[in-house]
């Protein structure tokens, strides 16, 4: 299986890869998201260590059961050969109606088929008031005309 764009990345293909990842995560479909990763992909997500697609699916099911109304924006920080570093922010609420904006960075490493074999994520959560939210598009893919992180000052 191949997942273009493939390494080595350029500025354009790294941005395409980040947007494809953002779109998949905004679908909140764990099976769909897992297909972008190698069968034996290794993750560090906060303090959790995950290995393989099965654990990725389980992790994402737990995540989106807790993080409701999830909306994400990713932006490329830098890239080189088969690696991309992104920064991101997502907004979500818990089951009590409290809103959060989670900020983070991810380091990605891809195999020759364009599948991610390593993901290292560092994330911090900031409680926000509902009127501080910046992401108001309907659940799903961020519209093309919606500002990105830099344009939002995040």
From TrEMBL:
InterPro entries reported for this sequence: DUF1348, NTF2-like_dom_sf
UniProt superkingdom: Bacteria
Name of the molecule in the record: Nuclear transport factor 2 family protein
Lineage: Bacteria, Pseudomonadati, Pseudomonadota, Alphaproteobacteria, Hyphomicrobiales
